[in-house]
Fold this sequence. Notes:
The structure holds two protein chains of two kinds.
Chain A: E1 12-19, H1 29-39, E2 43-53, E3 59-63, H2 73-77, H3 86-93, E4 101-109, H4 113-121, H5 134-151
Antiparallel strand pairs in A: 1-4, 2-3, 2-4
Chain B: H1 22-27, H2 34-44
Amino acid sequence: MTETSLDELGPVDFVIVEFPAATSNFTGEMVKELMALVDAGTIRVIDMLILVKAADGSVDAMELSDLEDLGELQILEAQLAELLAEEDVEHLAAAMDPGSTAGVIIYENLWAAPFASAARRAGGQLIANGRIPIQAILAAIEADEALETAGD
Amino acid sequence: MPLRAARVGRVGVVGHPVAKTAVVAKAVTPGPAPVAKTAVVAAAVTPGRRRPRI
Lengths: 152, 54
């Protein structure tokens, strides 16, 4: 893997996907979709960890290489950058419920890199970003509808 | 299983304890079926949708 220039680096995000106890159903579909994003150049996976939170709240972190059968993830594992530190594990696991397992993925948004670079070259600085929850969109729609109804 | 030695003793990048996203908490509360909600949201973000001007 070639070294990424800071100027060409896309935004880096993380996701934690939690699987409550006894509800996980791993069919390989998630790995397939993740690999599709990587293969399409949409994202680059920088780091991955598996976290297991016991009923007493203690957290066990596993490297991807600790898994017995990596399958397609073998390709990703060879390219991980081990960005996360030990203290990150505690911070990330704070969102987990006791008794659950979670996958943590750190990834670069390759799709956004050219735009971000262009913005920087134009003198722009990222001052905020975020995600709008679907629930917030729903709430706004419902509020609009309530206003329209009140105006009738 | 222990983390790789390279992860130990380094400064983290997350910075603070992460809170469970509110979307997850709301998504499991009783309410309209998710399919119905999805259709409503999809309509709201349809290309070309415009608010009436004030």
